[in-house]
Amino acid sequence: MSKITFAAWGLGIALLGGGIALAAEAPDYLHWPKPTGVNAKYAAIGGHRLHTYVEEQARIAERYRDAGHPQFWGRISGTSGDAEAAQWLEKKFAAAGLSDTRIQTVNYLAPQWAPKSWSVSLTDGTSSVPLTSAQPSYASPDTGAKEIDLEIVSIGAGGEDEFANKDVRGKAVLLLKTSLSRQIGPQDVLKRIEAHGAAAILSTDLRGGNFTAQSYKAYTHVPSFHLGTRDGEAIRAMIGKAGAAAHVKIRMEAGYESGQKSFLVWGTLPGMTDETIYVIAHRDGWFDAAGDNASGVASMIGLAEYFAKLPKSQRRRTMVFIGGDGHHSIRPGEFGNEWIVANRARLFAKTALIINSEHPSVVQTHGDAAGWTDTMTPLEWFAGGPDRPQLQKLFTDAFRTFGVPLWTQPSKVPPAGDLGRFYWFLPGVVAQSNDFIDMHTLEDTPANVPWTGLEGVTRAYAKLIDDVNKVPLKDLQRPAMPDPNAKDSAENVNLIKCAAWVQDSTKGCEP
């Protein structure tokens, strides 16, 4: 089996910030034997080919970075990187042989956070150390582009007892995050910190290395940053020294941009009936965003290529592929998904299945940041919910056929990721990793996406589609549940007031 060197991706062993200590070559991944018998046809889906699509998307993100966005970069919705990624995907759909390939512009109905630059350094008055892993939490307040100088105090995990003998008013605090989440800390802890008067929050974790990680919105009112483990240790070491108090100097310029647009990328494979199967994958992501979610987009393209090569007579149902704008944006956001949901009566009246292709293949690490294994991370999964036992069995049988490791039980309602916007009215499935150590970090590179997982998951989805095509529509559809996101609040756009936008996503939202 061939091995792929890091040099092929231009990474080097250091990996942009020293997150994981890795070998000089990608592992010789364990993989399932070539399928035989009735499943031999799925051997046409090859993981190495799919991996090239992950690499190409990473290069799109890096071009955006190199065009003047060295800190906040990726395939970010509403940016030129997003536009390039949409054009790239439409060309892949067309090359695969899909019909009605098109890019649908989606007007964003709320301003989006747009940080320009920041710096964080640690000083004791005599020496200064840049905290290179510092990354502001999404939508963090800035400093007005001015540098602020704050004493910093360590507060452990942020329990109320930590404040008993510590005055944090007007100071920065170092919070030790005890779980590997995509937030800088629990909301109750962040509120407690602000209630005690802290002027900035720096959050570090225990995963090891020095990961630069982009956190989701923290809803804080003071500048807030995630720090890698080594930078957090440097702060604690300086606090522990006798003499002058440790200080951090913080400067950040950020704001909001109005009038941004993103895109839904469509492609269709006509079937023998007007019943439909949808495959969706969000296109956006931070940094290279290889696992999250170039891998999902690559798997979706693999399904399109496989089924496009079959004669129409072998496709019972029409297949619709959608590359979504994504969810790495401030709420109100996810406008592509919101537009689709608002048009559900028109789009999904005869839908037998929707597959959300999201984070399907990432390497399994061991010992936190100590290194890699030679296999993929077992996947969290959801297959229609408890009232669709037939779909669950078809799903698990397909994934076991191709040796894809799964959690022993399906995830609870609501499922994670983009399927959370659709599961309540559609028979939806997803197999994804939401707990890989590199998620939302600089280290989420193509090297972390095993070709074996791309191959196995895509083959499993193809088999699932074939198996579902043998099931009558009435055995798959269920009455819709209440929309879990139907809230009229500052965090959601009331689409009842946006009739023109629902009809034409390029329009605005007029009350």
Describe the protein's architecture and organization.
The protein is α/β, with parallel strands linked by helices and 511 residues long. Helix content is 25%, strand content 22%. The protein contains 11 helices and 19 strands. Strands 4-3-10-6-7-8-9-5 form an 8-stranded mixed β-sheet, covered by helices on one side. The protein has a 7-stranded mixed β-sheet with strand order 2-11-14-12-15-19-18. A two-stranded antiparallel ribbon has the order 1-13. β3 and β4 (128-130) form a beta hairpin. α6 crosses α10. The radius of gyration is 23 Å and the shape is globular. The termini are far apart. The model is unreliable at 1-24 (pLDDT under 50).
How would you summarize this macromolecular structure in one to three sentences?
The protein is of the alpha/beta class.
Annotation keywords:
globular, alpha/beta, 11 helices, disordered N terminus, eight-stranded mixed β-sheet, 511 residues, seven-stranded mixed β-sheet
Topology:
Layout: H1 15-18, H2 47-66, E1 74-75, H3 80-96, E2 99-107, E3 112-123, E4 128-130, E5 135-136, E6 148-154, E7 172-176, H4 187-195, E8 200-204, E9 224-227, H5 229-240, E10 247-257, E11 261-269, E12 273-282, E13 285-286, H6 290-308, E14 317-324, H7 335-342, H8 344-347, E15 351-356, E16 363-366, E17 371-376, E18 380-383, H9 389-401, E19 428-432, H10 451-468, H11 499-503
Parallel strand pairs: 6-7, 7-8, 8-9, 12-14, 12-15, 15-19
Antiparallel strand pairs: 1-13, 2-11, 3-4, 3-10, 5-9, 6-10, 11-14, 16-17, 18-19
Helix pairs in contact: 2-3, 2-6, 2-10, 3-6, 6-10, 9-10
